[in-house]
Amino acid sequence: MDKLASGCLRHRAPSSKPYTPFQRSPSLLAPAAGRGRSRGRSVSIVVRCVLGARPGTATTTELKGRDDGIGGSFDFERYMSVRAAAVHDALDRALPLGLPERLYESMRYSVLAGGKRVRPVLAVAACELVGCDSAAATPVACAVEMIHTMSLIHDDMPCMDDDSLRRGRPSNHVAFGEFTALLAGDALLALAFEHMARGCAELGVPAERTLRAVAELGSAAGTGGVAAGQVADKANEGLPVSLAMLEYIHVHKTARLLEAAAVSGAIIGGGDDAEIESVRRYARCIGLLFQVVDDVLDMTSTSEQLGKTAGKDVEADKATYPKLLGVDQARAYAAELLTMAEAELEGFDADRAAPLRHLARFIAYRQH
């Protein structure tokens, strides 16, 4: 297990900051000893909430509570709700109806279908972590969600996973037909980079930061990420798969885009190289954590609970962490990844790190 858990570090970019080995945590409910700050310290966390704000709306939300560094009463549910709603509004404005109307309807059908918005919120939180206002991350947050939505549309198609249900309703290709769904995904990928370039310029983000973030997201969407992971995933269906290959698939297919979301947010926010690499390692671990939890839920939950077809991986004879490790060991690996992710936040301001710390735990504990 230690070799597997440390594997997520093999794929990261070089960093000037050495990594401190993680401590084994026996379960998702038992954080590693010594990780949290003293309990009971009251703080007032002021979160800038200008992401996608409309004229005349409030731009600052006070989220007050007791931050114990692990569970605390930091209002993470409210933080996620405010951020997700703001991202949704920004996406709605970024993608008005146009011609050809059916193509736009197909794009909006999936982009505005809801979801947890983990990736765009991750971009915003990383931007705030390095001390920048969340408004700067608006174009990045939208671009990440467009790329993610593209991957979901394509992933559901008959030539891929052939899934007819997504977020509790018909998949895009079921609702609009295969060729429209395919082109909607392509159009969203192109729009992501156009919107990001134009939006960052309008907000006055330095061009060199925008260019670096564009390169990061481009790599994550293509041969350095989602596309490579998807090819490896399909090529290995029904074949004996090692833990190393399984990790390669999920690092690229799932973790890489989560990583790029956080890294791009930190870049746009003006983080230095050491800060960006800490964010990268944090996000790589929670990206793998997301997939491990997803694998466990696919095996242990119903379609109604998940909002998508449960048991598809088992039916397709895909390699998953529960299949190779067993459910209990997969959960133990998830706990190790959570501990590793939290360790990367220790060098940052505790108040600004609170959303990312809680986001890691949200991913670990999610039920769908």
From TrEMBL:
Its cofactor is Mg(2+). It comes from the Eukaryota. One of its GO terms (cellular component) is cytoplasm. It comes from Oryza meyeriana var. granulata. One of its GO terms (molecular function) is prenyltransferase activity. InterPro entries: Isoprenoid_synthase_dom_sf (IPR008949), Polyprenyl_synt (IPR000092), Polyprenyl_synt_CS (IPR033749), Prenyl_diphosphate_synthase (IPR053378). This is Geranylgeranyl pyrophosphate synthase. Keywords: Isoprene biosynthesis, Magnesium, Metal-binding, Transferase. SUPFAM superfamilies: Terpenoid synthases (SSF48576). Pfam families: polyprenyl_synt. GO terms for biological process: isoprenoid biosynthetic process. Belongs to the FPP/GGPP synthase family. Residues 1-35 are annotated as: Disordered. PROSITE patterns: POLYPRENYL_SYNTHASE_1, POLYPRENYL_SYNTHASE_2. Pathway: Isoprenoid biosynthesis.
